[in-house]
Amino acid sequence: MGTINILQTAKKNLVSIIGLIVVLAFVGNSYVDEIQDMNNASTGYDYCYHLVNLYELICRTIFAAIYFVICWLTYINRQYSRWSIWLFYLSAIVLIFHFIISGFLFEYVYDHVEADHMDSLPTLARYVFGAPAYFVLLSLFFVPKFIKDTIKLKKEQELTI
Prior knowledge:
By secondary structure, the chain is mainly alpha-helical. It has helices at 2-12, 14-39, 44-76, 82-112, 121-130, 133-160. The chain is elongated, with a radius of gyration of 20 Å. The model has no long low-confidence stretch (mean pLDDT 84).
């Protein structure tokens, strides 16, 4: 019975599923490119540059996935769920872990970049620590609206029950 519901939902949202597959293929290809560039790096700076780019891509993917699920629960699914509130907390926890890991990664990068490329460290630091900046700025403007809409959905569901 569950398989039939999934297939029916897939048929209704075929364009969305194709779009999701295209995005996942693009992101997966980007991961593979960065890993191959790390393996083919000729200097320590090249290796660290691609390592930092890979880390930034992973972080952006995680934050985008969290906010996509929040939007999906609130606006597409149109049903109140405790998950929509817990995902806000999860995004804050992921942000804290991001900065902890970023500190360790930047120490690693600092130790492995040659003296010839020390002038490029600020750029690498911006990549390491700046990955969630877009999502933090978006959160400042849109999270209050998400919370307001989630509360509105909760009230609507309580009225219909």
